[in-house]
Design goal:
This protein has 337 residues and is α/β, with parallel strands linked by helices. It has a single domain, classed as 4-Layer Sandwich (Nitrilase/N-carbamoyl-D-aminoacid amidohydrolase), CATH 3.60.110.10. It is globular.
Length: 337
Amino acid sequence: MTPFAIAALQLHTSAVQDNFPRIRSRIDILMELYPWVQMVVLSELATLGPLQTAAQPLPCPAEDSYRELAARHRIWLLPGSFYEKKDGKIFNTAPVIDPEGKVIARYRKMFPFYPYEAGVEPGSEFVTFEVPDVGVFGVSICYDTWFPETTRTLAARGAEVILRMTLTSTIDREVELAIARATAAMNQCFVVDVNGLGDGGNGRSLFVGPAGDVLYEAGTAEEMIPLEINVERVRRNREIGLRGLGQPLKSFRDRRVEFDLYHPGNRRTPYLDTLGPLEKPKRGSRAGLRDAAPPPRAAAGAPPAARATGAAKGVVPSLVPGHPAAAPPNSDGEEES
């Protein structure tokens, strides 16, 4: 058995304030309560928030402070990610800090959440690192896991635990939880999926075992989640299969098929080119908007009761599509585009 204790910190974070003082306090409290923890993981963009105006070169003062914190508590520390300025570009970058306070790697998110994370450059290098006497860990950020090639590559490089930092505040969190379980099962590894709260996400952080089993799912309040995992479970699952059944990594290793789609020059296909540009969606229709046909007006001389039919039914005229009160005046007299 190779036990290893990982703590996920699901915390409220702000988009406009430096979150480091509070994060430092929570780590200090965590280590006072649970001194057996060996690694601490935070959510994506936890420290300086999700606005690109906070981007700065790395190393930065916050990263240096995390290095001191890791050394003081003798822990592995993944403090989420930062928007990093580098060579005139902005990356979404997660440092990995060892118990001596050294930054041993920086992972740059490969799949920024386009089109909503426009302006962020994709990274191109995978990061795995070894924790001595424990195993191999891989790093992933948020939208990366929607592309199974990324996590399969980490597993093929030996990753037994995938650490995923995310900032998900959107209605697809339920889907992400399914992806986390599927990722663990397909790669026969642990997945630690850490989300934030407030400006940093909608919570529901997750620990998943190598059989796709949920070890713990957080709610939507702040939580410290210290959990000891047994990395030998990964090795046993990869040896005999998930619950003694499928052995997907061996099957992938022994495959006869080569995936032409991934060859240089083949990444685009006639079908993919029909999907249009990668941009924010537009409204699906104009229904209910100001160019809808106006309702018929009461005939001149009609009694007041006839003209007040809408109000009598409890309908507010300003909320009726097409009603003159429903649309603000357009100074140039043209329709919206």
